[in-house]
Amino acid sequence: MSDLPPAAAAKKPQGFLPIHTNAFDRVFIAVVVFVAIHLFWMRFVEQDLSLYVATVISVIVGAFIIARG
Amino acid sequence: MRPQSVGWLFLAPTLFILFVFGVLPFIYVLVVGFFDWNSFAADPTPRFSGVNNYRELVFDSGYLMSLWNTLRFGVFAVVSEIILGYALAQLFMRNFPLKGFFRTIHTLPLMIAPVAVGATWRLMTVPGLGPIPYYLDKWFGIDFLISRYPQQAFFTTVVMDVWHWTPLVTLTLLAALSSMPKEPFEQAQIDGANRFQTFWYVTLPMLKPAILSAVFIRLMDAMRTVDEVWMLTGGGPGAATRYVGLYIWRVVFPKTDYGYGSAMSLITLYLTIVLCWLLYAGLVARRDLRRTE
Domain coordinates of chain A in residue numbers? Predict the structure, then answer.
């Protein structure tokens, strides 16, 4: 059992992100990561691999962040 | 009527205004960003182009350079404003003759329109007319010519921004300093803390919300600076002070490339939000978390 008082224990991060987040935060982070991956892909990778690959990766990463972040 | 319904009723006008003037234009820009739309082109009707505007944008060296210049400008300006604003707030916490007069004088730049600030600084930096090049040459032998030297132009825009917006930071921090309780300072004194320790462990943590508010407001402002810089340097020499707002303006208005301009605006907004969020997550959220562990 945790030694923390109830309020502090509730603030403990539940997922792998280093900050306490709610569902809205995680959706926001997922959108930010989605856009970042696409911009990075267009700049550096798209000559070799289609942008759809970036979309698939972004959706997987986003779903993971929302579910486990 | 239930209390919750009354709350929504009172909120409704604000939400309506926010939706009409905030959310709808945002959605419009978001949609236009996926179109090729140039009213001077052979075919001026908007044509859906997918992510082509964004594809073009990540290779646009002019835009990337303007982003980098804007970030440099933002960092230099905001850091200077916070340091200077804090020093002035501490000064105004003390009693000295004509304090009220100086406090009023010091807030005057806030009341001047940015275009007028730019015009004033332009007059002050024109060689042969303005006092700044004259005295810099007379006292230090510096050849001050912002239309020729990029670094001088850059730092003049930073100084102009600091001159214009430091009073806002001062007032914010002054309000925060005035509302601080005395007990923690007395306790620190009893515990034998020196002035630096009192500042670092007592004043700064208590000022953090006010400092962060000032940093967010100023950073967002700095990222969309147009008018002052346009009046002072016109974005030059070369592209030295062509900050992202000016760059977008050149694409949207003289070139009437609305689709590409919208894409640039959205990416700039995205970067501003990410920057502020990273600051928040790094400085507030992580620290609060550590405290609870």
Answer: 6-68
Instruction: Read off the pLDDT of residues B279-290 as tens digits, 9 standing for 90 and up.
Output: 888 777 765 655
Residues of B in contact with A3 (CB under 8 A): none
Q: Which of B51, B267, B285 sits opposite A19 (nearest CB)?
A: B285
pLDDT reported for residue B255 = 85
CA angle B97, B195, B185 (to 5 degrees): 85
Share the mean pLDDT of chain B.
90
B273-277 mean pLDDT: 90
What's the Rg (C-alpha) of chain A? 16
A31 touches chain B (CB under 8 A): no
d(C-alpha B118, C-alpha B169), whole Å:
20
C-alpha count within 13 angstroms, C-beta hemisphere, residue B84: 16
Q: Which residues of B touch A35 (CB under 8 A)?
A: 270
**Domain spans of chain B?**
1-32, 69-258
CATH 3.40.50.720 fits B69-258, yes or no: no
In a mutational test of the B interface, the residue from A17, A43, A53 whose CB has the highest number of chain B CBs within 10 Å is A43
**Residues whose CB falls within 8 Å of the CB of residue B189, separated by 6 or more in sequence, listed in order:** B198
Res. A9: pLDDT tops 80:
no
Q: Measured between CA atoms, how close is B22 to chain A, in angstroms?
A: 18
* Chain A nearest C-alpha distance from B34 (Å): 14
Mean pLDDT over B191-220 rounds to: 90
